[in-house]
Amino acid sequence: MNIKNVSQMPVAEGKSVQQTVELLTRKLEVLGAEKQGTFCVDCETYHTAASTLGSQGQTGKLMYVMHNSEYPLSCFALFENGPCLIADTNFDVLMVKLKGFFQSAKASKIETRGTRYQYCDFLVKVGTVTMGPSARGISVEVEYGPCVVASDCWSLLLEFLQSFLGSHTPGAPAVFGSRHDTVYGPADTMVQYMELFNKIRKQQQVPVAGIR
Amino acid sequence: MAGPLSVGVNLEAFSQAIGAIQALRSSVSRVFDCLGDGLRNRETLEGREKAFIARFRDNLHSVHRDLHELERLSNLVCKPLENHPLHNSGLLSLDPAQDKTPLYSQLLQAYKWSSKLQCHAGLAAGLLNQQSLKRSANQMGAPAKRRPKAQPTMLLLPPQYVDDVISRIDRMFPEMSIQLSRPNGTSAMLLVTLGKVLKAIVVLRSLFIDRTIVKGYNENVYTEGGKLDIWSKSNYQVFRKVTDHATTALLHYQLPQMPHVVVRSFMTWLRSYIKLFQAPCQRCGKFLWDGLPPTWRDFRTLEAFHDTCRQ
Ligand SMILES: [Zn+2]
């Protein structure tokens, strides 16, 4: 499994989301990266139905059901800080049948779509994050194929990110630090997307700086 | 004086011995003739049996006599031959037809050439050793007397010796595992797994490394038939580059008289890739150059450099 780092690129001052994405992709093309198709990651939030909760003021856990175009036959179900389930795409049908236990949160669907770029052994995916009709932010995923242990290549990834994100480089995601020496898996990528989406959802209330 | 004389005596004994062999063969064939003819026609059955047994006994006696004579002569023939300085090839010099078959002079010529070649090869190896790596020479843990000295038949090292050398190297480096297999007869193939960084296929001919291919830890190294795939390249540019450098290293680490040192030096060098993704370039201090990490490792210091940053 290839190491991937998912991070958020803030919208440049005085620019729209679309303009910032264009700026970013142009930088990649100048670097020598080649276009290689498109990608899409989506996420829907479910919460446990009120009827199944205990009486002692238990709060329902949130569950995220996600799809990734890189794994077209799989469906991912994640809890925050919890386990990640990788299932067949049939899982969506199952969720409908489990309506009594898990209910889809209204208008919770969030997704990112964009272009894939190949540069040497790096695969870069720049996506526009949308919730409903509005563009909310930018996601940048960098994949490095040759390395299988995330903590081994973080410095290297960071240097690569700096080469086109400039000063907006992210801190190391949890997967890159805590679990030393474990082999990176698809679930690690989905957790990163889930955290990114949650961050962008929370920004909803606060007006995004720089948008005029 | 002793040489020609003894040869002359031998020739005498030889012709006698050949005569004795002929006599023996005819007496033996008489025995079988007699057996084949069986009982000849006589008046009484008793007379027939008597005559047959008498003939048979006579024949066996003559076989015994001839065999005894041959044994006596063969003792005369063998002894001086063993002492000839050139062993059997010395007999070629006795061939009187020198013009038609000049084998003996050709043999002497070839022998001179081969001893000259060995002498020159020894001198060349001595000179090359002075130029070679101090590191590999110093690493020789084994005492001097255990080193195999000047082996002209290096390609014929027994498989057991190769196995021993490889397993000793395997034990030397805990983060490196070496799997030895012999899918194509006597030549060994090694699958080297270095941490969770890379896998290298090393093809040996005796103890000489013929070819090496480096691939990613998560890449497939087997063909569909389950054999080690020694031809296909890595999908990643970084490992294709490392493969190129490893091939260069094969040419660099040369010590024809001590192939096990070469294998060990190569493995020591290969082991430095354990930090392939973690070591910045020692020259420019960066991780990436043209999208690649520092793929070059110095042969002496094992320091990491970008391909373009090495001297
Ligand atoms: Zn450099």
Automatic annotation (TrEMBL), chain A:
Protein's GO biological process: regulation of transcription by RNA polymerase II
Name its cellular compartments: Nucleus
Q: Which UniProt keywords apply?
A: Activator, Nucleus, Transcription, Transcription regulation
Question: What Pfam families would the database entry show?
Answer: Med20 (PF08612)
Query: Could you confirm whether the keyword Cytoplasm appears in this record?
Result: no
- Record keyword Aminoacyl-tRNA synthetase present: no
Q: Which GO terms describe its cellular component?
A: core mediator complex; mediator complex
The highest taxon in the source lineage is Eukaryota
The record's InterPro entries line, in alphabetical order, gives:
Mediator_Med20
A GO molecular function held by the record: transcription coactivator activity
Where does the protein principally reside?
nucleus
State the family named in the UniProt similarity comment for this chain: Belongs to the Mediator complex subunit 20 family.
Q: How does it assemble?
A: Component of the Mediator complex, which is composed of MED1, MED4, MED6, MED7, MED8, MED9, MED10, MED11, MED12, MED13, MED13L, MED14, MED15, MED16, MED17, MED18, MED19, MED20, MED21, MED22, MED23, MED24, MED25, MED26, MED27, MED29, MED30, MED31, CCNC, CDK8 and CDC2L6/CDK11. The MED12, MED13, CCNC and CDK8 subunits form a distinct module termed the CDK8 module. Mediator containing the CDK8 module is less active than Mediator lacking this module in supporting transcriptional activation.
Report the function annotation for this chain.
Answer: Component of the Mediator complex, a coactivator involved in the regulated transcription of nearly all RNA polymerase II-dependent genes. Mediator functions as a bridge to convey information from gene-specific regulatory proteins to the basal RNA polymerase II transcription machinery. Mediator is recruited to promoters by direct interactions with regulatory proteins and serves as a scaffold for the assembly of a functional preinitiation complex with RNA polymerase II and the general transcription factors.
Per its record, how is this protein called by name?
A: Mediator of RNA polymerase II transcription subunit 20
Q: Which organism is it from?
A: Myotis lucifugus
UniProtKB/TrEMBL annotation, chain B:
Cellular localisation: Nucleus
Q: What is its main location?
A: nucleus
What keywords does the record list, in alphabetical order?
Nucleus, Transcription, Transcription regulation
Listed under GO cellular component are: mediator complex
Choose any GO biological process term that the UniProt entry carries and state it. Answer: regulation of transcription by RNA polymerase II
Stored Pfam families: Med27 (PF11571)
Tell me where on the tree of life, at the top rank, the source sits: Eukaryota
Q: Which family does it belong to?
A: Belongs to the Mediator complex subunit 27 family.
Q: How does it assemble?
A: Component of the Mediator complex, which is composed of MED1, MED4, MED6, MED7, MED8, MED9, MED10, MED11, MED12, MED13, MED13L, MED14, MED15, MED16, MED17, MED18, MED19, MED20, MED21, MED22, MED23, MED24, MED25, MED26, MED27, MED29, MED30, MED31, CCNC, CDK8 and CDC2L6/CDK11. The MED12, MED13, CCNC and CDK8 subunits form a distinct module termed the CDK8 module. Mediator containing the CDK8 module is less active than Mediator lacking this module in supporting transcriptional activation.
What is the protein name for this chain? Mediator of RNA polymerase II transcription subunit 27
Organism of origin is Myotis lucifugus
Per the record, the gene is LOC102428025
